[in-house]
TrEMBL record:
<dbReference type="InterPro" id="IPR002740">
    <property type="entry name" value="EVE_domain"/>
</dbReference>
<feature type="domain" description="EVE">
    <location>
        <begin position="41"/>
        <end position="147"/>
    </location>
</feature>
<keyword id="KW-0597">Phosphoprotein</keyword>
<comment type="function">
    <text>Specifically binds 5-hydroxymethylcytosine (5hmC), suggesting that it acts as a specific reader of 5hmC.</text>
</comment>
<feature type="region of interest" description="Disordered">
    <location>
        <begin position="1"/>
        <end position="40"/>
    </location>
</feature>
<feature type="compositionally biased region" description="Polar residues">
    <location>
        <begin position="21"/>
        <end position="30"/>
    </location>
</feature>
<dbReference type="GO" id="GO:0005634">
    <property type="term" value="C:nucleus"/>
</dbReference>
<dbReference type="InterPro" id="IPR047197">
    <property type="entry name" value="THYN1-like_EVE"/>
</dbReference>
<protein>
    <recommendedName>
        <fullName>Thymocyte nuclear protein 1</fullName>
    </recommendedName>
</protein>
<feature type="compositionally biased region" description="Basic and acidic residues">
    <location>
        <begin position="124"/>
        <end position="142"/>
    </location>
</feature>
<dbReference type="InterPro" id="IPR052181">
    <property type="entry name" value="5hmC_binding"/>
</dbReference>
<keyword id="KW-0539">Nucleus</keyword>
<feature type="region of interest" description="Disordered">
    <location>
        <begin position="124"/>
        <end position="152"/>
    </location>
</feature>
<dbReference type="InterPro" id="IPR015947">
    <property type="entry name" value="PUA-like_sf"/>
</dbReference>
<dbReference type="Pfam" id="PF01878">
    <property type="entry name" value="EVE"/>
</dbReference>
Length: 152
């Protein structure tokens, strides 16, 4: 994989995440020069920019959708993969992530985002009308978390 400025990057796949797309994933990507010292690390937040219905709800979310949000900020909800959830919880404030368009005609990095809120319970797990509803998750012990992101 080629990283910023055409430099090689190492990528460790960290599973599924979303905003609000259930089949998206997170990756932590250390950027290095020819196997040398790591310059910085980025998360890879995958989202589907083209319409896709899930339980009757369009779960599309693109970089343009993020740009249209108030203050260009959104919650990254709908993560329903335990490994991805754990990595989502491991993210720290002010860390950066590549916003990646997946499952579309032109997949690739569409922008850069920053983590602006610590992990907190994902409200969609309790909403019976949400495609991300999880009947086994309890409000006093939620299974799923989300983060808030801002366009960098």
């Amino acid at each position: 994989m080629k990283g910023p400025e055409g430099k090689r990057t190492k990528t460790k796949n960290l599973g599924g995440a979303s905003a609000p797309v259930e089949n998206s994933s997170l990756q932590k990507t250390p950027v290095s020069e020819d196997g040398g010292e790591t310059l910085s690390s980025y998360w890879l937040m995958k989202s589907e920019p083209e319409s896709r219905l899930e339980k009757g709800v369009d779960v599309k979310f693109s970089i343009e959708d993020l740009q249209a949000q108030p203050r260009q900020t959104t919650c990254w909800d709908g993560v329903r993969n335990y490994q991805a959830r754990n990595f989502l919880r491991a993210m720290r404030l002010d860390e950066e992530a590549f916003f990646y368009h997946s499952n579309c005609r032109e997949p690739g990095i569409a922008g850069l985002v920053k983590i602006v809120k610590e992990a907190y319970p994902d409200h969609t797990q309790f909403d019976k009308n949400s495609p991300h509803y999880d009947s086994s998750s309890k409000e006093d012990n939620p299974k799923w978390s989300m983060r808030s992101l801002i366009l960098s």
